Amino acid sequence: MHAPARFSLPGISGWQPFTKGPHSELFRAPTSKPILAKVIRPRSQPRDTLRKYVNAQARREWRSAFRLQDAGLEAPRVHGWAVSISPFAPYESILFMEEIEGFKTSLRFIRESENAADRRLFFDDLAADMARLHGHGLIHKDGHFGNIGWGSGDQLIWIDNDIRFANTPAKLEKGFLHMRQMLERTARNDVHAEEWRYFDQRLRMQLERWPKARALGATLR
Ligand SMILES: Nc1ncnc2c1ncn2[C@@H]1O[C@H](COP(=O)(O)OP(=O)(O)OP(=O)(O)O)[C@@H](O)[C@H]1O
Ligand SMILES: [Mg+2]
Q: Using one digit for the tens of pLDDT, what is the confidence trace for 81-101?
């Protein structure tokens, strides 16, 4: 396990099932500030079983959280990560992190909210965050509405992160278009054509603020 010395792992008996994701199960320790353990299953074999010894998903999420926070974006505080040593283990790795109380995904929001003004505010915020991400030369391998949401405040919070540094402008552009497509693919029926146009327009405007990412605006329709 990799964690700073100040992190003490809560005793094994208190953990309760919290929720299940498509490739993970989350458990919650009832500490004064609740801690979540995200237990991650391999998705693709033999890729994940080989990769876990070098760069397990929990390690990638851990590093991604710091990268996002350094760029001024909000992500849950991460406490530590561990990897299962056996190649036959049903789980690949485990991430310990802060629970965002009442976390709600933006996928749920765009499916449920009919308030046009609120929806626009969300697309404003998403465009600002996405421009900031790429403005820092970062790309997201899994940036979709299910992994971006809110806790109790208005600020967007990014969970389930796989953030890389783009070493070249070509990689930055590829990563940017990948995220833009991923957003659309995972919410095709939940966002109106006119909202996509609005989002792209805001995105183009926000990208202007970031010298590294300015050229990306021209890649949008
Ligand atoms: N830090 C957190 N605080 C509160 N809820 C969380 C947190 N992290 C995850 N969740 C909840 O658990 C759900 C699944 O989490 P997550 O998206 O990380 O898993 P996943 O999609 O299965 O991951 P992966 O696709 O990487 O296997 C989220 O939609 C969210 O409701
Ligand atoms: Mg997810």
A: 999 999 999 999 999 999 999
pLDDT at 180: 98
Pair of tokens at residue 78: 């991460």
Residue 24 lies in a domain: yes
Give the number of the ligand closest to the Cα of residue 106.
1
Q: Are 186 and 146 in contact (CB under 8 A)?
A: yes
Q: Ligand 2 being an ion, which residues bring their Cβ within 5 A of it?
A: 147, 160
Give the residue from 78, 98, 118 where a domain finishes. Answer: 98
- Residue of 26, 157, 161, 163 to test ligand 1 pocket, by largest number of atoms within 8 Å of CB: 26
Residue 171: C-alpha distances to residues 138, 139, 167, 168, 182 (Å): 10, 8, 7, 5, 16
pLDDT 10s digits, 26-63: 999 988 889 999 999 999 999 988 899 989 999 999 99
Kindly indicate the confidence band of residue 11, based on its pLDDT and cuts at 50, 70 and 90.
Answer: confident
How far separated are the first and last CA of the chain, in Å rounded?
Answer: 45
Say what the pLDDT of residue 17 is: 97
> Residue 148 corresponds to which amino acid?
I
Could you give the 3-state DSSP secondary structure of residue 7?
Answer: coil
Full residue range of the structural domain in which residue 205 is found: 104-216
Same-domain status, 115 and 177: yes
